[in-house]
Amino acid sequence: MKKILFTSLTFLFIQSNLFAQDDLNALTTATPFLLISPDARSGGLGDMGVATSPDAYSQHYNAAKYAFLESQFTVGVNYTPWLRNLTNDVFLGNVTFANKLDERSAWAASLTYFSLGSIELTDEFGTPQGIEKPNDLAIDGSYALKLNDGFSMAVTMRYLRSDLSIKTNDTDLQTVNTFAVDLGAYYQSEETNYGDFNGRWRAGMSIANMGPKIELVAGGQKSFIPTNLRFGTGFDFILDDMSTIKTGIEATKLLVPTPPKDINGDGELEGKTNDVDFFTGMVQSFGDAPGGMKEEIKEFTWSASAEYEYDETFAFRLGYFHESEIKGARKFFTLGAGFKFKSSKVDVSYLLNASDVNNPLENTLRFSISFDFGDFFEEF
């Protein structure tokens, strides 16, 4: 029998929603790497991004923001170490390119790669049987269009490949290829005077990863991919020509069914079946929690953030992320900074865990870099 213990643990990690505990009733999906924030700017803002100001990594959160880019072209490159306390070869990598076509439209493409590291296989006698490198991959393309001066919408098509298969005779794990669609909307007001300062409102919403269920184990039960609803708002305090404070709040919810559960201890499962297609699951997810509306509300996570920007060359960021104790218990504060050098931007972030649940980004300093070039567009 092959030794694939680490693979089994990895598979459990992929099936869970970031370390959710079995005795709680957390939502579970396949390919949860799609929920990982790929960049350090968002990493410093409590993983927010649906209604923040546009940047190179808007593809992950809300592609509609690309219609408000100020530069003609932008490129973002990011590398995020994962589970650094346990291993040094698990990581998330992302490359994004966006092109603003004119004052009203833009398109973007991105590649996200999640490596689960190298796994050495041996037989029962310890004889080496080769090395496997399971991984997940997503390739996206989006188009954003302004419907008026302050409002835009976007659609994103995504190809997904999940290769957790191990080339042995005693595993049913298989490579999966599928697709998903995102829809996004973004609003950005004109700069308005509020007495001692000017201000600008922002708002955004997106539904990401709408797609069919996938079969990770041959002949097994199909799993939902992480269809995710995001919505949020923000306000920019434009203090003068040099200083701006950007604030925001955001909520997210997985649009997948809540598993039935024996909440009374009588052997009877409460709630609705989660053996439904993905679209029915999306609709059902708003009212199927075994604990009723009280539990349903706890399925929302929320974030709050503040970002101080000076002369568009330096930024300092603070954020907080909160998840209910019975849905995963992730809680953390974030710190971040950004630096601009001519056409390039460098962002860094650090996560401070505030929960008893371990976080895969603890003790990890994240870096992102992006480049703006081409013609520049004036907003309002």
Description:
The protein has 380 residues and is mainly beta. It has a single domain, classed as monomeric porin ompg (Porin, Beta Barrel), CATH 2.40.160. The chain is built from five helices and 17 strands. It has helices at residues 5-15, 40-43, 58-61, 278-284, 293-297; strands at 71-81, 91-100, 105-115, 119-122, 128-132, 135-148, 151-163, 176-188, 192-193, 198-210, 228-238, 243-254, 300-310, 314-322, 331-341, 344-353, 365-376. It has a 14-stranded antiparallel β-barrel. The longest helix is centred in the first third of the chain and has 11 residues, at 5-15. The chain is globular and about 70 Å long. The N and C termini lie far apart (66 Å). Residues 1-22 have low confidence and may be disordered.
Essential attributes:
380 residues, mainly beta, Porin, 14-stranded antiparallel β-barrel, two-stranded antiparallel ribbon, 5 helices, disordered N terminus
Query: Regarding quaternary structure, how should these chains be classified?
Result: single chain
Strand residues, percent:
over 45%
What is the straight-line distance between the termini? 66 Å
- CATH class descriptor name: Mainly Beta
Taking Cα atoms only, what radius of gyration do you get, to the nearest Å?
21 Å
Number of domains: 1
Number of helices, counting only DSSP H or I runs of 4 residues or more: 5
CATH superfamily: monomeric porin ompg
- Please tell me what the overall shape is: globular
The secondary structure category is mainly beta
The side-by-side strand order for the widest beta sheet comes to: 1-2-3-6-7-8-10-11-12-13-14-15-16-17
Strand elements, count: 17
Major β-sheet annotation: 14 strands, antiparallel, barrel
What is the helical fraction, as a range of percent?
under 10%
- Output mean pLDDT: 86
**CATH fold descriptor:** Porin
